[in-house]
Each structure stands twice: as C-alpha cells, then as structure tokens.
Design brief:
Layout (H helix, E strand, L loop, with lengths): L2 H6 L9 H36 L5 H26 L1 H21 L3 H15 L2 H12 L2 H32 L4 H4 L1 H15 L13 H20 L9 H23 L13 H32 L3 H29 L3 H19 L7 H18 L2 H7 L7 H30 L2 H4 L10 H31 L13 E2 L9 E2 L7
Antiparallel strand pairs: 1-2
Length: about 500
C-alpha cells in the first residue's frame, strides 16, 4: 500500500481518513505549542519579573490572575464548542491570548501585569479543553494513546526549548520578550487552524447559562482573593479576608442552585453521577494543584536558594517536563495496546509523591544536578497520569457531551492549579521573614540568611503537594474503575453507575 493510499484510508471506528486526522492534529499541536511554551517560559522568567515590578510577595499574583482568567472560562469554551463548533472558538481563544500577551509585554507596573495576565488567561482557557475535545471527536479511545506521541512531541519541544528560551531572554534581553515571543507562534497557530480544522456541517441547538457562568466567575474570584490576602496583606480574622471567603461560599452555593434549575448547566453535574467520572475529575484537580505548584516554585528555589541564573533554573525545570512528556508517550502506547489505564492511576501518584518528598528535603547545599534528579522523578510520576484521567472521563461519557465533559476535567485541573499555586504561595509567605518579603528584593542575590529562610519556607509547600498525591492514590484505589476502552468514535455509553455503562445507538458525527 502506497503512502497516499494509507493516508486516504479511513480505519474502522474513525470518522475521517488518516490523512485528514493528521492534518487536524497538526493544527492542534501548534495550538498546544503556543500554550505549553507560554507556561514554561513564564515560569522560568517570573522571579526576574517580580523582582523588577513588585517583589517576592507578588510572586503568586501573576500566576493567580492567569489561572483565574482561564479557569472561569473553561466551562464556557466547552459548552460553546458543543453548540457552535470548535473552529470559531479556537480563533477567538487564540486572538484573545495574543492580545493579552502583547499587553503583558507593555506592562509598566505589577497591577497592569496582573490585569493583562488575566486577559491572557481568558484566551488560554480555551486552548487545552478545545484541543482535547477535538482529539476525542476524531480518534477512538482505544487508539488515542498512539496519538499521544504526536501531542507529546509538542510538550517535549516546549519542555526543552521553553525554560531555556525563558532563561536566555531574561539573562540577555528584557523580560518583556517572554510575552512577545507568543506573537509569531500564535500567528502560526491561527493560520494552521484556519487551513486544517473542519467546520461543523450543521449547528446544534444549545442554551448557554451566561448567568451561571457569571456567578461561578464571581465565586471563584472571591475565594482566591480571600486566600491570597489572608495572613499576608490582612489577618485571617479580618473583614478583608472573611468577607471574600464568605462571599465565595454564598456565590458558589448559589451557583449550585442555579445549575439545578437551568436546562443546560454550564458544568455537567449529571455526569458526576458516574463514579469513574467523578473520581477522575477530583484526581485531575489534585494533580493540577501539585503540578502547577511545583512548576511555579522550583525556579524560585533554584534562583533564590541555590543562587543561580534564570537560565540554570530553566535547565532544572526541563527534566520535570521532559520526564512527564516521555512517560506520557510510553504509557499512552501501553494503554492503547493493553486497553487498561487503571495501573497508571495507582503508580503515578506514588512516583510523583516520592519526587515531591525529595524536593521538600532540598536545602542551601543542594546542587542543580540533585534538583534536576528530583524533578525528573516527579515528572515521571506526572507523566503516568497526564492524559489518563482525561481518557477515563472521555471513555465514560456520551459523545454528544464530549466537549463539556472534557471542559469539566480541564476546569477541575485549572481550579486545582489555581488553588495549589495560591495555597503554596500562602504557605511560603507565612514562613518568610520580613527582610525577604521586602519589596524589590533581588531573588538571585539573597544573603546566606535569606537563602536559608527561603529554603525553609519552601519545604512545607512541597510537602503539602506530596500530601495531595497521597489523596489521589486513595481516590484511585477506592473509586477509579476500569471501563473497557471503546474502539469506535461513534460508540456511545449511558451515563450512570459503572454497572449501567453500555453501548448505545451511534449518533451522527458532531466534529
């Protein structure tokens, strides 16, 4: 069979030919490259940014604003993608992301940077859920592991290039270029999406719960404000902290009531009646908290405690991301061949937890090589779970709910990442002495006492992340069940308990 014939072939269970699937994948991979590069570049360069604009106590705000913007918009992107198709949503998301990137590069103070990072996050909120939902629409669950290698190659490139580029830019140019570098990559992503991705041939009727989305955004924002301000800007018992926390409880409770009454809720809570979906979503949130907390604070440790440059901190971060990507690729091949994914959910949190425990034991005498080793172990554990919980959810829901279900997993990861970075920031700030908290502190030039204080402040943060891995393991043991991976894109399942999962009548393609 010639290459042309192979590409023109449509395997059983697929909607499109292999050639068309690969063309669509090329657009998805460029989009993921845009998101992955931004995460790795900014994480490496951020200690220099906050040293120039605001000081170490503002460190988590740049992450928090970005994650807040992406978190509150993920459910909307999932629902709008199901309703109007994913191609127009991709274009909108990438455009907002690029506008936010340009504004971040122009920021003159910390307040402006935080606001512009929130705008950037609104665009980023659509990149991951739309991409993963599109993968679920064109590749059957049983074969999806084989294609993780293509996605993994993007993260591998970002894992190697991103930290090095971020460190190199900060050490040799203005930190503003860490945001400007998104513009050419984003332009390429837009062009490829326009050429490769198909438009939906028909429109589904959906109602969008805009009011519920607004209540959810307000409740999440109030929760994060209370957590960030508590113990740092204001005492925990002060009205400035108790007010937002109390408002978040009221707003999130109101959101739950609103979602029970609307015809199509912004978050598909009915899917959570499925034990595998509910437990996988919970694990996604906890893993997101541990993952993003680690990515956010390891560069701070390397630059502040070890005292090396931003480029060196990028080199240390690379083994974590590269280990995660390579392990994700290998585990994806194994899952496709065996049809079993539960072993990954049991081994992954154990290995990630061991890596985080090693990180919590690092001190002022730790070398870059030792930090890199610990990061590699943590990355291997993360890679075993990176796509597995998404796969278990997609395999357990009806095809018509693929977008909203995938968005639910990404919302859980985003809210977990936001809370993880915020809470780890609270832990670190609580432990730091006043001298290190001072505005304008240069991270990589701390005195010996400051380095020791920063190391001691970071220890309980990494230990808390290891504790999250223990919870993931317990949830996986008790509630994540093995559901046979479907071999066709068009096969359906009935949402409910595992005992009721069964094939249903195939429905028309929605890709």
């Amino acid at each position: 069979m010639t290459l042309r014939e192979r590409l023109a072939r449509t395997p059983p269970g697929y909607t499109y030919s292999i050639g068309r699937v690969l063309a669509i994948y090329s657009g998805l991979m460029v989009t993921l490259l845009l998101a992955a590069l931004d995460q790795t570049i900014v994480a490496t360069a951020l200690p220099k940014v906050v040293s120039d604009l605001g000081g170490i106590t503002q460190y988590t705000w740049v992450f928090t604003a970005y994650m807040l913007g992406s978190t509150v918009t993920v459910p909307l992107y999932g629902k709008l993608g199901d309703a109007h198709g994913r191609k127009p949503l991709f274009i909108i998301a990438i455009s907002i992301f690029l506008v936010g990137s340009a504004l971040c590069g122009l920021a003159q103070n910390m307040v402006e940077l935080v606001i512009f990072r929130a705008i950037q996050g609104v665009g980023a909120g659509g990149l991951f859920p739309l991409t993963l939902a599109m993968v679920g629409m064109i590749v059957p669950p049983r074969d999806r592991g084989r294609y993780q290698g293509l996605i993994g190659s993007v993260f591998a490139a970002a894992s190697i290039i991103g930290p090095l580029v971020g460190g190199f830019i900060v050490d040799n140019f203005s930190w503003r270029w860490i945001f400007y570098v998104n513009l050419p990559v984003g332009g390429l992503a837009l062009a490829v999406i326009l050429v490769t991705m198909p438009r939906r041939p028909y429109k589904q009727e959906h109602s969008i719960d805009w009011f519920g989305a607004g209540v959810l955004a307000a409740g999440t924002t109030a929760l994060l404000l209370g957590l960030v301000w508590g113990g740092r800007d204001y005492p925990w018992a002060s009205p400035e902290v108790l007010g937002p926390l109390g408002a978040s409880v009221v707003l999130l409770a109101a959101f739950a009531l609103v979602e029970r009454e609307v015809r199509e809720p912004i978050l598909p809570f009915d899917l959570l009646r499925n034990q595998t979906v509910a437990s996988s979503v919970a694990c996604m949130g906890l893993v997101g908290a541990a993952m993003f907390g680690t990515i956010s604070f390891v560069p701070l440790f390397v630059q502040g405690v070890i005292g090396t440059s931003a480029t060196s901190s990028g080199v240390v971060l690379t083994p974590f991301l590269l280990g995660a990507v390579c392990t994700s690729f290998i585990s994806g091949q194994i899952v496709s061949r065996t049809g079993r994914y539960r072993p990954n959910t049991l081994i992954g949190p154990v290995v990630l937890g061991i890596g985080l425990l090693l990180l919590s034991r690092m001190g002022v005498h730790t070398t870059n090589a030792e930090a890199a080793r610990n990061m590699l172990i943590a990355g291997i554990g993360l890679g075993m779970m990176m796509q597995i919980f998404v796969l278990s959810v997609q395999n357990s829901v009806p095809r018509r709910s693929m977008g909203t279900a995938t968005a639910l997993t990404q919302f859980s990861r985003s809210i977990g990442a936001t809370l993880g970075v915020t809470l780890m920031g609270v832990i670190v700030n609580q432990q730091l002495p006043a001298g290190v908290q001072a505005e304008g502190t240069v991270i990589h030039r701390l005195p010996a006492a400051g380095r020791l204080a920063l190391a001691n402040a970071l220890h309980p943060a990494f230990l808390a992340a290891a504790g999250l891995c223990a919870i993931v393991f317990v949830i996986s043991v008790l509630w994540v069940r093995e559901v046979p991976l479907r071999r066709g894109v068009e096969e359906e399942v009935v949402v409910g308990d595992e005992a009721s999962l069964q094939e249903a009548t195939p429905v028309r393609s929605e890709a």
